[in-house]
Amino acid sequence: MSKTTPATPDAPDAPVGDQDLGAAGSQLSTAPTESLSVPALGVIGWARWFWRQLTSMRVALLLLLLVALGAIPGSLIPQSGTDATKVADFVKNNPTLGDVYDKLGLFHVYSSVWFSAIYILLFVSLVGCIVPRTWQFVGQLRSRPPGAPKRLTRLPAYTTWRTAAEPEQVREAALALLKKRRFRAHLAGDNVAAEKGYVREVGNLAFHIALIVLLTAFAWGQLFKSEGNKLVVEGDGFSNTLTQYDDFKSGNLFDTGDLVPLSFRLNKFTGTYETNGPNKGTPRLYQAAITYSEGAYGKAHKTLVKVNEPLEIGDAKVYLTAHGYAPLITVRDGKGNVVYRDAVALLPLDSNVTSTGVIKVLDGYKNAKGVSEQLGVSAFFLPTYTKGSETASTFPALNNPVLNLTPYHGDLGVDSGIPQSVYQLDKSHMKDFKDAKGQELRENLKPGQTMKLPNGAGSVTYEGTKQWANFQVVQQPASGWALAGALTAIFGLAASLFIQRRRVWVRAVRGDDGVTVVEMAGLGRSESAKLPEELGELAGILYDQTPQPTDDTHPHPTPDPQVAPSEGAEK
């Protein structure tokens, strides 16, 4: 058996060999054949030229790069769809730059004209690439591998030997061997033609189709998505209607009728923390015990919602995103009548859940003179109070809770028609209460303690502490399609990178001296050391299956199964 002889362009028979190799290597790629002719002038000609450019792989890669670059400002610049407050602050602090960003659509990147144009062009480009490639690949699957070139010595991997077997026997043995190795093989005249590695093209097409699925799923999810947050205190509930949300945002084509009918009640929130060591105060367990039901008359079920373990109902997922404390407050007027009793949710300021908020008594309160007023109480809460650290909690759990209250009376401004936050107090029309020393009234209360308002104006009692949990209800259509597309793209890309498509030919003919000459050659889509190795292994097996010539005048070299490309002529 001789060693492999690669193609040598300077050989005397190069033109004939190159022509044969071109025929043998045809259709190893599913890329559509591009014409080098310049389009004819006119609308149709230019349209055809533009379509060829748009559906070329290089333009598809360029558009994919532009989509990735376009997503960068969407991550670095505040977006109006996710946080309009940050956008307003940015414009206020940077008026000139903010005006430029606004004109370029950088505050709403994913719905801007330029990003949508790139997105649509990429979609069209991928479709234009895939359709002809798929059609051509189907044609290749329906056809047989082409016959061997006239000169197998011109192929990258080549070997030959002589055998006493008849040419028909060699071809039959080669056909059986190649089929056993999962080659598509058939007899083509005096040779056996075989091909393997179609999974490479399947993976290539699957990768591009998966990109289309990803683009479609992403666009569909952005157009029909919804996302809302709701803070729920222990004992309270929530129904999935638009008016129940604290904040809500959705896609351009979302309709409130698409909200999944569900409701739940927060029974208890449980949080545990590391008590010592370098991770002191780090949460160990966050879970909310809820009772939920599907639909208006669904059966009630109990479950636990944990961080990264959402409740899934239909297309909606309910995530646990935050937690805090809600002191239970009772307010009485000068006559001792209860005018307010509720758990007031306070917002955390740090990792130890130092919290702040406002208690607003809008109706029913009358001062000592019987005049109707409104009360506003600023609240500052420390779950774990430690002497010497009066301004911040030292641990997130309720080890030594203290509630600091500062009351005001007057007009809260809620009747002006201007919306205001429930966590902030407008003091422009409010007056503070004075203590016995003429200072602003402010007291620290522990659970069960009461702060008396001066001059018989009433009292405020801190009765205990409840906990609250913030839930995020997300509806993201086509998320399953996006996941399937991503996985398919990964496996398709792996197949197109690691699987080599190759062809093998075995020619067996009777020589001038009557002894059968066997030639074996291989051709791959790309250069790879595995092709010569595979050809050497196949040649070694086929050599062992055929009897060797006994005539000493026709010696036969021992075959070397490790076939590798090398320079030089056949030995």
From TrEMBL:
Keywords: Cytochrome c-type biogenesis, Membrane, Transmembrane, Transmembrane helix. One of its GO terms (cellular component) is membrane. It is a multi-pass membrane protein. Residues 1-26, 541-571 are annotated as: Disordered. Its main location: membrane. Residues 1-15 have a biased composition (Low complexity). It comes from the Bacteria. It is found in: Membrane. It holds the Pfam family ResB. Residues 57-535 form the ResB-like domain. One of its GO terms (biological process) is cytochrome complex assembly. The chain crosses the membrane at residues 59-77, 113-135, 205-224, 480-499. This is Cytochrome C biogenesis membrane protein. It comes from Streptomyces sviceus (strain ATCC 29083 / DSM 924 / JCM 4929 / NBRC 13980 / NCIMB 11184 / NRRL 5439 / UC 5370).
